[in-house]
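Bench log. Compound arrived from synthesis this morning; before running ITC I wanted a structural hypothesis for how adenosine monophosphate sits in the protein. Inputs:
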Amino acid sequence: MKVVSTPRALRREIARLKKGGRTIGFVPTMGFLHDGHLVLVRKAKKDNGAAVVSIFVNPLQFGPREDYGRYPRNLGRDAKLLRSVKTDLLFVPRASTLYPKGSQTRVSVGDLSRPLCGATRPGHFAGVATVVLKLLNLVAPDVLYLGQKDYQQFRVVERMVRDFDLSVKVRMAPIVREADGLAMSSRNVNLSFAERLEARCLYRALKKVKESVLSGERRADRLRDTLRRELGRARGACVDYAEIVDAGTLRRVTRLSKDHKIFAAVAVFFQKTRLIDNFLITV
Ligand code: AMP
């Protein structure tokens, strides 16, 4: 696996990979990797000849009071994990490389970036869309791999790709979970032992909602109540949002109809650590 940190070296290595006739699968990450990331890399490698990964904790997508400084980092460990899944190329740019002095262009996606994480993290999706567009320009992959863990991010990026006529396919992979249901996340290491146990409430709440839909509940407010009730049972959990929206538009729904695809999504703080999780449910 080659490791590069400049656009010039990246382009040279990409050209080399393409010359061998291979297509490129790309997985952008913020590092501190876990199985949720590695599933995406394995998929990228399997579907394409070459897997390219980036590790970049993107300052643009963090608010001033968020955890940019506290975000876990361990490049040595990440590189080892990426080698174990046969990654071809790892791109680790510096913030000053991607955003040199004077950089001022930002990508803003419309309605899809406004609710949920967009409502409580202003500017977050503009930061995400901007860095993903830059990375797509640099890597020029055939296929981009994203996780359902960040479903709204997937939808925002998918929209940007369509709106800007980018010639990359966007694929989504399901959420990888710990044995007790907690969605894998780099931020889980910031939980104390007690918080880690309480954090099971996200999965539990979503499962309750799914069971409720399966047993005939069609009133979205009732489902939101179920989410809040279950999350409220966890000690130290401070709910950021607990929503039931249409999986296509991400708009709030009042009643579920037959064949309706809904997105049940939660975001919960344990002290300063913010966790998100979701289920896509077809009625
Ligand atoms: P991050 O490093 O958190 O920015 O995540 C990089 C990519 O990995 C994003 O597309 C995430 O949606 C995806 N990802 C993170 N955690 C998981 C998980 N538990 N299951 C599936 N995909 C994930």
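What the model suggests: The mean pLDDT is 98. The radius of gyration is 19 Å.
ITC booked for Thursday regardless.
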